[in-house]
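Repro case for the chain-ordering regression, as requested:
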Amino acid sequence: MRYSGFRVLKEALTGHKGWQPVWRDPEPQAEYDFVIVGGGGHGLATAYYLAKEFRQSRIAVLEKGWIGGGNVGRNTTIIRSNYLLEGNQPFYEFSLKLWEGLEQDFNYNAMVSQRGILNLFHSDAQRDAYIRRGNAMILHGADAELLSPAQVRRAYPFLDFDNARFPIKGGLAQRRGGTVRHDAVAWGYARGADRRGVDILQNCEVTGFRIAQGRCLGVETSRGFIGAGKVGVAVAGYSSHVMAMAGLRLPIESHVLQAFVSEGLKPVLPGVITFGAGHFYCSQSDKGGLVFGGDIDGYNSYAQRGNLPVIEDVVEGGMALFPGLGRARLLRMWGGVMDMSMDGSPIIDRTDIDGLYFNGGWCYGGFKATPASGWCFAHLLATDAPHATAVAYRFDRFRRGAMIDEKGVGAQPNLH
Amino acid sequence: MLIEHPLLGPCDAQEFVYKGDACLIDRPDGMAEGAEAAFYEHVYPRDNPAGLHRELWFHEQGDRSWLVVTRNTRTHEIVKVELARDFARARGRGR
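-- result from build under test --
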């Protein structure tokens, strides 16, 4: 289906009866060259770039439920590339550049809004650390800007600047950061992939891998066996569960992360803000709700819901930074299952089994990575070599002691 | 979540610090042959089951005991709580 102004006008006058589904609902074929397990943002982006950039065909995306029903529909929609370390920053900057051209690329309105992200700091030591991070970002071609308290006050006059314990001493801004309409990312990639011949198979749960002589021949599914030249797994949250079917144990734990939305308010927050003295971040959606979140609950969970102590902790952080938040009523809250890797960084790599590839361990930073994750995974699947920005995201980094530990906390998944 | 402490009765999970999979009790011998590989297996990979999970909780805000809690990761239901000391001794540890 093509979209145009004329079409919108015509449909408006004829009761919107002419819209058709934008992707097919095909029957599974017996065999594909590429089978992507997981119809979330990363899996759909992988299929899209495999077809579009790497000119591959005979591709299927397998999803156990409906596409976009997992973490791509459960996040807080923030995009940014404000990382410090060598192995991370080029990758996330690549992702942010892809976000900037995404809507033109797949001709779908994903509401990419570069409204800026501002990391506030509250002490001299933290300011020095943020200056260092800003310099690392600039050296990798990203944008970063140190704001004085007066500059922060101009944009966000309602913050608690003179808090006795955590006064706001300034902030590190990335103006190209912002938010995206998350569901539209899944839909845009699905539509783009479908138009290039990718079969999107929903309600098709993988129940096992067929492996012979160290080679993956295909996947057993709830809709029968599907043969595959190469299988790529992108099921973050359930990575350990799926890869265990292939006999692999991953350096990953699944944890629950909660997020919150207030009732709709008039525009108050122009960009994304983060609290430097606790874990709290907040933006305002286009519908007016304040979207915010904080730490994971901290224990292994697949439950997609968390507990009250973390809610209290997040809201305390919010109130310390943004006292006006207390006047808004909470509308919704939910939990998502995060692939927490042992160093807080992702994995895009081949496995020990020929023809089986893995993409996961996104912790709670997977949404912003969606385009680059898809591109780099497609690169790996199509060429058998890692993309230049994803060379560090290997399984063996833990064995080699080459962790990418942005926070420097060691092998503690609940602290990243 | 309430954790049924074997000595103190029901305690709020907030009094505890979560310390991960109970497999961490089986620390390899650093002097043994192949210790490097054994420590890799000890520190990084996890079973991470969706279902019953045996895990360590440290009663930091309480009596500072370590517990092994068996909990369902799909529902957060706690089915068994034991002292980590008893758990380790049952596995042949001397202390």
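Ordering looks correct now. Residues 2-90 of chain B form a domain with the Folate-binding fold fold (CATH 3.30.2270.10).
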